[in-house]
Structures are given as structure tokens and as C-alpha cells.
Write a structure and sequence with these properties.
Blueprint lengths: L1 E2 H7 L4 E5 L2 E5 L8 E6 L3 E4 L4 E6 L2 E6 L3 E4 L2 E7 L3
Parallel strand pairs: 1-4
Antiparallel strand pairs: 2-3, 4-9, 5-8, 6-7, 6-9
Length: about 80
């Protein structure tokens, strides 16, 4: 399972900056799998620039398309990607 926060924080190929304890990053998903298991020990916001994704969490399933922003509590999720 991918630790999203640590992966983004430790790799240099993300456009990112930190202010205090906040991490801001541009994440262009390089993964080609339809389903990706992720987890993080921090809460996070996701803004979808293009495409469509669905997050499956213990609280339910949440879909987002281009221009939408979602807030997620820390924990695990399965992210479903749509390749159109």
C-alpha cells in the first residue's frame, strides 16, 4: 500500500512546497493501474484538474471530476482511475 504523504514528500519529481506542517504538491498520477491502494497519516485535499477518479474509503465512495475538490480524513483508501 502506498503511503501517499511520504511518497510525495520524499520524491523530487513532484512540484511541491511546504509551509510549516502543510505540504502542497502537484501530483500527476503516473500509475496505469485502475485501482491503487493508498494510505496516509494526515488529512488531505484533492483537486482534480483533468479526468475523473473515485475514492473508496470506510466512509463511502466519493467521485470527483475536473474542477472538483474533495477533503479526506487520514487513513486508507482505494483510488479508482478512469482512463478515457
Amino acid at each position: 500500500m502506498l503511503n501517499l504523504y511520504e511518497d510525495i514528500r520524499s520524491k523530487k519529481h513532484y512540484n511541491k512546497f511546504e509551509i510549516g506542517g502543510l505540504l502542497f504538491a502537484e501530483y500527476k498520477c503516473p500509475l496505469e493501474e485502475k485501482f491503487v491502494d493508498i494510505w496516509t497519516h494526515t488529512h488531505y485535499l484533492v483537486h482534480v484538474v483533468t479526468g475523473k477518479k473515485t475514492w473508496h474509503t470506510t466512509d463511502g465512495s466519493f467521485a470527483a471530476e475536473a474542477g472538483q475538490t474533495l477533503y479526506f480524513k487520514k487513513g486508507a483508501a482505494i483510488v479508482e482511475q478512469f482512463f478515457n
